[in-house]
Amino acid sequence: MDSGKSWEQKSLVNEIIEGMELAKQLRLCLNAKSSADTKQFLVQRILSSYEKALLMLKCGGSPQSPIRAIASAPESLMSANEGPCCVDNNRSLQDHQDLTAVSKKRKEMAKWTEHVTRVISENGIEGPHEDGHSWRKYGQKDILGAKYPRSYYRCTYLFTQKCRARKKVQRSDEDPTVFEITYEGKHTCSHGGSSVPPPPSPEKQERKRHNHNNTYQQQQSQGNQMSFPTNLRVNTENLDDRENTASPFSFTSSPFGSISVDAFLSSMLDDKSLFDHFNQSLLSPAAGGSNYYFELPSQMRNIAGNEQRSESDIISANNSSTNSPIPDMDFSLEPVELDSYFPFDCPGFFL
DNA sequence: AGTATTTGACCGGC
DNA sequence: GCCGGTCAAATACT
């Protein structure tokens, strides 16, 4: 553990040093007559570097450091190690395993909270994020003082695999686009990205119910789905809710899983023109300095999913590696969050 | 028909 | 008694 910590500190220092170096380069560029692209590139590299450093501080820093803006306090069992920290692949899984192994009472199970911001779609309906596991709703309760009811979910495989993971989903009163998700217990099921296609998740079905006649038709009516940006949904709201950003460029989707841009892009680089389009679209001036939530168009989904499917099928694809060309890759191609500081125009990054 | 969701009832902690 | 959490019958969906 100590070695891991010192490694983190080294990485942190490295990131900061890199940021400084890049800033120096930028200064030189400003004095010289460098191209705007170069400057832009340097700026984004700098921001990316500091972003990473900040994330390291948040996630791996001192035990006293704020893990994230979770603090739905009663989770008394949540220690600095136990929380979700960043929503990344390694997300404290080991820690919950240790904790849940210690105590079997549900009340004492590891518990942590995520705040998940979601885009409100055109028809005003959205649900909390897919997290790579399949859940079954077993209850809903109006909570005193809360504007929205709280939903209770358990793992679909509670009985078949005795997976005792549960989660509570509470929509934020202040910001309805924010869902506070309290996870309880670790998944012992093997379906976090298994080859067995799980049933559709509750959030998805909720949306499906609401959108029953809307969403798919909307997607269809959006016309040129072969053109990536036409279906690109950008939300620059809720910029403060950055805690879910696992790394300066990762597709955060699951408490236990995310996909790096490398893996994701390598799967889509076959379609170079599509990627170029994607790349350019995110280089537009409007793209600067914001969080991005974008919904992958069906074309891109198909790249990952191999086949054309209905929206509900597409959404559930994140639970099933069967449909994914990337084995055991547990990621969602639902609306995902991109780090605003990611240097999309970094020529060497994607190659 | 099988599976998932809804929702009122019930239970336990405070 | 209140409230959060869970159960389970009814209902909806595929």
Which key terms come to mind for this protein?
N-terminal domain of TfIIb, alpha+beta, DNA-binding, 9 helices
Task: Provide an overview of this structure.
By secondary structure, the protein is an alpha+beta fold. Among the domains are: 2-59; 113-119 and 130-184, WRKY domain (N-terminal domain of TfIIb, Single Sheet). The protein is 32% helix and 13% strand. The protein has nine helices and nine strands. The protein has helices at residues 2-31, 36-60, 93-102, 202-211, 215-221, 261-268, 272-281, 298-305, 311-316, and strands spanning 111-117, 135-141, 150-155, 166-171, 178-184, 250-252, 258-260, 292-294, 336-338. The strands form three sheets. A five-stranded antiparallel sheet has the order 1-5-4-3-2, with no helix packed on it. A two-stranded antiparallel sheet has the order 6-7. A two-stranded antiparallel sheet has the order 8-9. A hairpin with a 6-residue loop joins strand 4 (166-171) and strand 5 (178-184). It binds a DNA duplex (14 and 14 nucleotides) through residues 136-141, 143-144, 150, 152, 154, 156, 168, 199-200, 202, 205-206, 208-209. GO terms for molecular function: DNA-binding transcription factor activity; transcription cis-regulatory region binding. Residues 213-225 have a biased composition (Low complexity). Residues 186-229 are annotated as: Disordered.
Q: If helices are DSSP runs of H or I spanning 4 or more residues, what is the number of helices?
A: 9
Task: Bin the helical content.
Answer: 25-40%
Q: Widest sheet: strand order? A: 1-5-4-3-2
Order of helices and strands: HHHEEEEEHHEEHHEHHE
* Biggest sheet descriptor: 5 strands, antiparallel
Roughly how many Å apart are the termini?
A: 33 Å
Shape: elongated
Content of β-strand: 5-15%
Low-confidence stretches: 1-5, 60-107, 119-128, 193-351
Count of beta strands: 9
Q: Tell me the Rg in angstroms.
A: 21 Å
CATH superfamily of the domain at 113-119 and 130-184: WRKY domain
